[in-house]
Design a protein that fits this description.
Elements lengths: L2 H36 L2 E3 L6 E3 L7 H12 L21 E5 L1 H9 L6 E4 L12 E4 L3 E4 H7 L4 E5 L9 H18 L4 E5 L6 H4 L7 H12 L7 E4 L2 H4 L19 H22 L2
Parallel strand pairs: 3-4, 3-7, 7-8, 8-9
Antiparallel strand pairs: 1-2, 5-6
């Protein structure tokens, strides 16, 4: 073989190798960007403690990513018997919470209820936030409670606080409960346990893990000793056999698929109706 031909062949092989490497790198980068678009972790205002959400800004890209995350077809479950749920009016209910309560607002189909919920919300920033509420527009929690009356108020916070000292978080949470009781003295308050994350997410090395969430849930469950305060733990509905959020019910290990928010909404109404009956309200 002539030397010139050998050089041409070697050059051709090198060009193919470089092109293949570039395509592989580009594919890898696209995957990372897709994960960032979902935005399962964003940073809090302090810049120190990460918060869980699905995107800081509702751009078209974030909306599409959120839709893909929640509306992907979940794994079909075998031998799942339909549940029977009680019903009761929820047009006098207010839900307060973080991104998973946003999901409940978007997909839970709790007719008539209002939601004061936002990505990244925590007991540390809740009084600083102005949130869009369907009936009144953008408002602070203080103004919302002072100018509206609710018979049922549901609180679910804690996952964004997992990086803080637990006793401090529980203390701040209790201050929030007392504030709500002061502004809405006739309301029944439902403290909702934080949903577990999947065991894969829990064991990933993040500060967000089920051991921490269980400690927070245990701390806030004590508030149910107060008058007209009740504790609801929905993990019985969504946990797998290892006490983690079942992988078939979540796309990111943190948030539920849309169809399970519907089930969660029914479960909340059902448990509320039971408490109403048991206490003769």
């Amino acid at each position: 073989m002539k030397k010139s031909n050998l050089i041409i062949i070697i050059s051709f092989i090198l060009v193919i190798a470089v092109a293949a490497s570039f395509m592989l790198f580009k594919k890898s980068g696209s995957s990372d960007n897709a994960e960032n678009e979902i935005g399962t972790v964003a940073y809090a205002e302090s810049g120190e403690i990460p918060t869980v959400g699905y995107g800081d800004k509702e751009t078209d890209g974030h909306k599409e990513a959120k839709k893909a995350l929640f509306e992907s077809e979940p794994t079909k479950e075998k031998n799942q018997e339909p549940r029977e749920y009680k019903t009761m009016p929820m047009d006098d209910a207010l839900f307060i919470g973080d991104s998973r309560t946003v999901g409940l607002s978007d997909y839970g189909k709790i007719e008539g209820a209002e939601f004061f919920s936002d990505v990244g919300m925590s007991v540390y920033n809740i009084f600083d936030k102005n949130v869009k509420v369907s009936s009144v527009g953008r408002v602070s929690l203080k103004n919302l409670l002072e100018n509206n009356e609710y018979s049922k108020i549901y609180l679910m916070l804690g996952i964004n606080e997992a990086g803080y000292e637990i006793a401090q978080t529980v203390e701040k949470y209790e201050q929030l409960v007392d504030f709500v009781k002061e502004k809405e003295p006739d309301a029944k308050i439902f403290i909702m346990a934080n949903l577990h994350v999947s065991n894969a997410k829990s064991s990933s090395g993040s500060y967000i893990n089920n051991k921490t969430l269980d400690k927070i849930n245990e701390g806030i469950s004590a508030f149910a000793q107060k008058d007209n305060v009740f504790f609801l733990d929905v993990n019985e509905l969504f946990d797998d056999n290892n006490r983690g959020l079942a992988p078939s019910k979540t796309g990111d290990g943190v948030h539920l698929y849309a169809k399970y928010y519907v089930e969660w909404g029914k479960w909340i109404v059902d448990r509320s109706a039971q408490i109403w009956e048991e206490n003769g309200f």
